[in-house]
Amino acid sequence: MAHTVTLLTRAGCGMCTQAHRELAPICAEFGAALEVTDVDEVAPSRPELRAEFGDRLPVVLLDGREHSYWEVDASRLRTDLAR
Are 72 and 27 in contact, with CB atoms under 8 Å apart? Predict the structure, then answer.
């Protein structure tokens, strides 16, 4: 099964940049798609993302479900992507 990892970010967020650096090689390792969504940019069409996650970015979603926030839980992500 191909997984999708979504990184919820905000412009100027240093932790978001670091999370992207960590996620890219993990996703490549497992052939998972990596999508990056800026919660402020999509707010006009998807305000629920900013409302729910905007105060604890970065947030990692695995197949649309919250997986971790503030930091990438690399070992758990690898385990879940291997399933």
Answer: no
pTM of the predicted protein model: 0.94
59-62 and 65-69 strand pairing: antiparallel
Q: Give the β-pairing of 4-9 and 59-62.
A: antiparallel
Number of H helices, E strands in the chain: 3, 4
Q: Residue 79: which H helix or E strand, with range? A: helix 74-82
Please state, in angstroms and rounded to a whole number, the distance separating the CA atoms of residues 18 and 41.
20
Of 35, 4, 32, nearest in space to 19 by CA: 35
Taking a C-beta distance cutoff of 8 angstroms, is the pair 6, 20 a contact? no
Tally Cβ neighbours within 10 Å of residue 32.
Answer: 20
pLDDT digits (tens, 9 = 90+) for 15-36: 999 999 999 999 999 999 999 9
Q: How far apart are the first and last CA of the chain?
A: 8
